[in-house]
Write a structure and sequence with these properties.
By secondary structure, this protein is α/β, with parallel strands linked by helices. The chain is built from 13 helices and 15 strands. The chain folds into three domains: about 80 residues, THUMP domain-like (Alpha-Beta Plaits), CATH 3.30.70.1510; about 80 residues, THUMP superfamily (THUMP fold, 2-Layer Sandwich); about 210 residues, Rossmann fold (3-Layer(aba) Sandwich). The strands form two sheets. Strands 1, 2, 3, 4, 5, 6, 7, 8 and 9 form a nine-stranded mixed β-sheet that branches. A six-stranded mixed β-sheet has the order 14-13-10-11-12-15, with helices on both faces.
Length: about 400
Amino acid sequence: MIRQVIARYGELSLKGKNRHQFEERLVGNMRRVVADVPGVRIARQNGRVLITLDDAPVDVVISRLKNVFGIVSLSPVEVTGLALEEMVQAALRVRGEEARRLGLSAAERSFKVEAKRVNKRYPLTSMEVASEVGGQLLAAETGWTVDVHHPAVTVFVEVRDEEALVYGVKVPALGGLPVGTSGRVGLLLSGGIDSPVAGWLALKRGVELDAIHFHSFPFTSQRALDKVETLAQTLANWGGRVRLHTVHFTDVQTEIRKHCPENLTITVMRRMMMRISERIAEQNALLALVTGESLGQVASQTLESLRVINAVTRLPVLRPLIAEDKVSIIRLARQIGTYETSILPYEDCCTIFVPKQPRTKPGLAETERAEQDLDVERLVSEAVARTETKVFSRRSPVG
């Protein structure tokens, strides 16, 4: 019976002197997602993370951990001593289990052994371990053939300092960096498809999220806000805690509509969002802003528009989706569980008051002239002062 699982990480191994900090954060994040599963112990071990299960179900543990950012892959393993016979017996069990899992027929039963000798003091080389174990597996059971190029089953053997690990499957995981290793950012979270996906990709790069949402009641409904809160909860299930800052934006949009040329209202609105978001970021020690913009997707996402919008903030603005098309964004939204919520038919402030012919290539000077009748500082200060914050914590781990 499988009692251990190994978790592998990729780019964490390149972090040099800071590597232990990334590893400690990863292990902490892993422990949190399996905290409600009794009998699970997690510890770092020689460039890997070893999960000891006791009586915990291996499928549940792997399904949780494969969705932890920073893990590249996982394998349920048998841990043996360094005697070759122990490795062979474990390899027999692993090969049989993989054959059953894959439903292999007698004609499909081919295998190979891949060995890795981490313990350089071990008397056999990696090739010799693979040859010895493979030869004994071939002799132990009839009906199996060796295929070193396209085997149905690969048995992996790792010879370490005090033990050997034997396993037959590598479960792909998310990769990326552990959440909490890259600082905190502010995600401009609308109720649409794009911004939750951008937030998820930011989580994958190790940030913690504060979400900033612009709500224009009564032009936007309570159901629209409920939708955004559901999206914030989904992101929290992936990344831990998400703080949602809801900005009451009605007065700002009303003033823009009253004083600004219609074809520039979207550009001015986005600039006001950036100003307000920067102020919220300053108050909450956020290091950057994240948006769901994709180059050329709508009028406010041309290079000219982005340049004019960026001009009002000194913060870095991260746009994870900038080179993605809508098809790939929707595919990822479905994968992370936000798509069905995002398409609920409740308008957000970005979809109301849309001009018939918005400027796709606004200039900075003309946009600044369009804002000259706005009391920008008052509108920003009042919107920030009325912002409400709600905290979402992980309810049920994804997977």
